[in-house]
Specification:
Blueprint: E1 6-24, E2 27-42, E3 48-55, H1 65-73, H2 76-80, H3 85-91, H4 96-113, H5 117-120, E4 130-131, E5 134-136, H6 141-150, E6 156-160, H7 166-178, E7 183-187, H8 194-206, E8 209-213, E9 233-235, H9 245-248, E10 254-257, H10 259-262, H11 265-277, E11 281-284, H12 291-300, E12 306-307, E13 325-326, E14 329-330
Parallel strand pairs: 5-6, 6-7, 7-8, 8-9, 9-10, 10-11, 11-12
Antiparallel strand pairs: 1-2, 2-3, 4-14, 13-14
């Protein structure tokens, strides 16, 4: 939809404290730094309409809060001149900045047309609740075991692991002991070597791990071609847009799609459709962020094999209004939040 009467673009930086700390193999943080883009327009019937989108700048991809804010603000003139969501895809590169604007356009379109975002996205029915994974931050085996005991009611736990050594097996062992009924995903965040992956495989299979996410550094995926492994492998840092799919074929079975990587819901929907056509399973992931980031991803999560949209559960506080979580069950977001 082309919206020519956008009167202004606002960009805000916001920080949300994380409950405790969030640690992965690359480091840890204690707050989520998000950027919110807001488009303000007048609808055909004279209403003032605001469309919002949230993103998380990620240093792994060379992004900073300042750089993302500047990239969004640089589009103000084009948006005032009538640039729409589809034109945005070629005007900006995929990444966090485009994600915030893309999702703001979706929200704007829903409010201007009176049609919910799921209908605009072509979904056949209103989105239903989904069960999300709950992430256990990297820590000592004892600490992760204790965290697992507190989260044992969650049906799917995602474990952040470290350097691919015996401590990682001990971490998974402690989690499995304390959460015997939960399915497990382990996420190495590019922290292992092929030799470590091969050595850990049988033990992780014995412990009932359902998925190993991004074991090797992105760019070293060729080593996984035809690699006989007892646990399905998932691509995260190696999976961006449709152009990345040929290199992932035969190396990974599951793709982790995140809006901050695809540059928004538009690119994520296209990637999901293309990936499923090629036979990949789908995981929908997130950065540590608020409900405003989760709401558009919720549409993508419909029918996904794995859902990892627990960002708000890791925060001390979410924004208001927010998505309701009933344990692991994530309820459809209200239109007051987004879409």
């Amino acid at each position: 939809m082309n919206i020519h009467n956008v009167s202004s673009l606002k960009v805000a930086r916001e920080n949300y404290p994380i409950r405790g700390a969030f640690a992965i193999s690359r480091g840890s943080k204690r707050e989520a730094a998000v950027v919110v883009a807001e488009l303000i327009a007048t609808s055909p019937d004279g209403r003032t309409v605001r469309g919002r989108g949230e993103c998380v700048p990620y240093a792994r991809y060379g992004e900073t809060v300042e750089g993302v804010v500047a990239a969004i603000e640089a589009q103000a003139a084009a948006i005032a001149g009538g640039m729409d969501r589809l034109q945005l895809q070629s005007a900006m590169r995929a990444g966090a900045a485009r994600n915030a604007l893309d999702c703001a356009f979706w929200d704007m379109e829903a409010k201007v047309t009176g049609l919910p975002a799921w209908k605009l996205a072509g979904l056949s029915q209103a989105p239903r609740r989904v069960a999300t994974a709950f992430t256990l931050s990297l820590g000592t085996p004892a600490a992760m075991g204790q965290a697992a005991a507190q989260a044992a009611a969650m049906p799917l736990l995602k474990l952040k692991l470290g350097g691919g050594d015996a401590d990682d097996i001990e971490r998974v062992t402690e989690v499995r002991r304390n959460a015997p009924k939960s399915r497990l995903i382990v996420d190495a965040n590019e922290g292992w070597t092929l030799e470590q992956l091969a050595a850990l495989g049988p033990e992780l299979a014995r412990l009932g791990v359902a998925l190993i996410e991004q074991p090797l550094p992105a760019g070293q995926d060729a080593a996984l071609a035809g690699f006989p492994f007892p646990v399905p492998l998932g691509a995260d840092e190696s999976c961006h847009g449709i152009a990345s799919l040929p290199d992932l074929q035969g190396r990974y079975r599951i793709l982790n799609i995140k809006l901050d990587k695809t540059g928004g819901l538009t690119g994520a929907l296209a990637l999901k459709a293309a990936a499923q056509t090629r036979g990949f399973g789908i995981m929908v992931g997130c950065m540590v962020a608020t409900s405003l980031s989760m709401a558009p991803a919720f549409l993508l999560a419909q029918g996904a094999d794995f859902v990892d949209l627990d960002g708000p559960l890791l925060l001390e506080r979410d924004r208001s209004p927010c998505i309701a979580y009933d344990g692991a069950w994530m309820q459809p977001p209200a239109s007051a939040i987004w879409g």
